Amino acid sequence: MEKLPFRLGIHPINWVGEDVREHGADTTFEQIVDDIQALGLTGTEMGRKYPNDPAVLKAELAKRGIGLTSQWKSVLFSDPAYREEELQAYRKHAQFLHEMGSTVISTCEVGGSLHFDPRRTPNEKEVLRFDDAAWRSLAEGLNAAGDIAQEYGLKLTYHHHGGTAVEQPGEIDRLMELTDPNLVHLLFDTGHAYYGGADPLDVLRKHYDRIAYIHLKDIRQDVLDEARTPNSDFVTCIRRGVFTVPGDGCLDFAPIFRELLDRGYSGWAMLEGEQDPAEHPAYEYAKKSLDYIQTLISQESR
């Protein structure tokens, strides 16, 4: 891999599903991190097969030359009744990531989500969009959480996400407008941007100054087309394989990498596939994706 101005890592969700628990259910932590080392990558996010003891996790990652970049944190700030409880949990999360030497907290509001909101019932069918009061509460909660993150030398990076109330282009825009740019940054996800109806390049250009972390994910257009049919929810789309690694789907990553290189992006960018590893082996798909990225970088450097 040619030298990049930014750091390239990979998410363990390629090996073990987070939203679809049966994906990679028998995969071990050791297999994941051994594969990451074999790929020559030095960054990973927290995964559900990883040891929770910071000392154990540090030792296992260090002997493979890998660092922990982040860990997902769900929040429920759109309902002010949950704010203090959520902020306390956020502080514990920040303490763990600080101890691990991480740089960002991948943060996503679950209020209104069909799958992630603990207040929803199984018979409901769609994401609930926010009214003005919920937007205000969300922004206030995120600003407070961002302040906590800063106490620990971390950045809150907001993950716009399929199947949530902040997935569409206008919702990303509104979140950026309502939050403090010094406290709330953006986790730019190529696959989730496209899933939510945006051109990923447009999101990258429009909000570049807020971006502090990146997920590089591709989309299978035929599965996405099915996802737009009635009663096809977000998790069902993952089971059907809507996401894959860069170079294996419909997205054109050449202008995205050109933009990142031209602007001198220097943070982490994580490869993500989020698909069934029994059908799409994680190491093999990651290797092919790295070869694809190498081709893009070589073309840009000519």
From TrEMBL:
GO molecular-function terms, A-Z: myo-inosose-2 dehydratase activity
Matching Pfam families: AP_endonuc_2 (PF01261)
Top-rank EC class of the record's enzyme: lyase
Record's signal peptide: none
UniProt keyword terms in alphabetical order: Lyase
InterPro entries per the UniProt record, alphabetical: IolE/MocC, IolE/XylAMocC-like, Xyl_isomerase-like_sf, Xyl_isomerase-like_TIM-brl
Protein EC: 4.2.1.44
Top-rank lineage group of the source organism: Bacteria
Xylose isomerase-like TIM barrel domain residues: 34-294
Protein name: Myo-inosose-2 dehydratase
